[in-house]
Amino acid sequence: MPWPTRQEAQSSAQNNLRRLRQENADLRRTLHLYEEAIRQLAVENDALRQQVTVIPLPARADQRPTL
Length: 67
What we know:
This protein is mainly alpha-helical. The protein contains 1 helix and no strands. It has one domain (1-51). The protein has one helix spanning 6-49.
Protein backbone atom coordinates (compact mmCIF):
# COMPACT_ATOMS: atom_id res chain seq x y z
CA MET A 1 0.00 0.00 0.00
CA PRO A 2 1.58 3.30 -1.10
CA TRP A 3 2.04 6.21 1.27
CA PRO A 4 -0.60 8.94 0.99
CA THR A 5 0.33 11.99 -0.98
CA ARG A 6 0.77 15.32 0.77
CA GLN A 7 -2.60 16.50 -0.60
CA GLU A 8 -4.33 13.33 0.63
CA ALA A 9 -2.75 13.74 4.06
CA GLN A 10 -3.87 17.39 4.27
CA SER A 11 -7.38 16.45 3.16
CA SER A 12 -7.50 13.69 5.76
CA ALA A 13 -6.28 16.09 8.47
CA GLN A 14 -8.91 18.67 7.47
CA ASN A 15 -11.66 16.05 7.56
CA ASN A 16 -10.47 14.87 10.97
CA LEU A 17 -10.40 18.45 12.31
CA ARG A 18 -13.91 19.09 10.94
CA ARG A 19 -15.18 15.91 12.62
CA LEU A 20 -13.56 16.81 15.93
CA ARG A 21 -15.04 20.32 15.85
CA GLN A 22 -18.50 18.89 15.18
CA GLU A 23 -18.11 16.42 18.05
CA ASN A 24 -17.02 19.29 20.31
CA ALA A 25 -20.11 21.33 19.36
CA ASP A 26 -22.36 18.31 19.96
CA LEU A 27 -20.79 17.69 23.37
CA ARG A 28 -21.25 21.35 24.35
CA ARG A 29 -24.95 21.14 23.45
CA THR A 30 -25.32 17.93 25.46
CA LEU A 31 -23.50 19.50 28.40
CA HIS A 32 -25.88 22.47 28.32
CA LEU A 33 -28.87 20.12 28.44
CA TYR A 34 -27.41 18.31 31.44
CA GLU A 35 -26.65 21.63 33.17
CA GLU A 36 -30.25 22.71 32.76
CA ALA A 37 -31.61 19.38 34.02
CA ILE A 38 -29.34 19.54 37.07
CA ARG A 39 -30.41 23.13 37.76
CA GLN A 40 -34.08 22.15 37.64
CA LEU A 41 -33.48 19.13 39.88
CA ALA A 42 -31.62 21.31 42.38
CA VAL A 43 -34.57 23.74 42.50
CA GLU A 44 -37.03 20.88 43.00
CA ASN A 45 -34.82 19.28 45.66
CA ASP A 46 -34.54 22.54 47.57
CA ALA A 47 -38.31 23.05 47.41
CA LEU A 48 -38.98 19.51 48.63
CA ARG A 49 -36.58 19.96 51.53
CA GLN A 50 -38.47 23.12 52.49
CA GLN A 51 -41.85 21.39 52.01
CA VAL A 52 -43.13 23.96 49.53
CA THR A 53 -44.96 23.48 46.25
CA VAL A 54 -42.77 23.17 43.19
CA ILE A 55 -43.98 25.07 40.15
CA PRO A 56 -42.27 23.81 36.99
CA LEU A 57 -40.71 26.72 35.13
CA PRO A 58 -40.04 26.80 31.43
CA ALA A 59 -36.42 26.27 30.48
CA ARG A 60 -34.29 29.36 30.67
CA ALA A 61 -33.44 31.11 27.44
CA ASP A 62 -29.98 30.17 26.30
CA GLN A 63 -27.70 33.09 27.06
CA ARG A 64 -24.68 31.51 25.40
CA PRO A 65 -23.67 32.14 21.82
CA THR A 66 -24.53 29.37 19.40
CA LEU A 67 -21.52 27.40 18.18
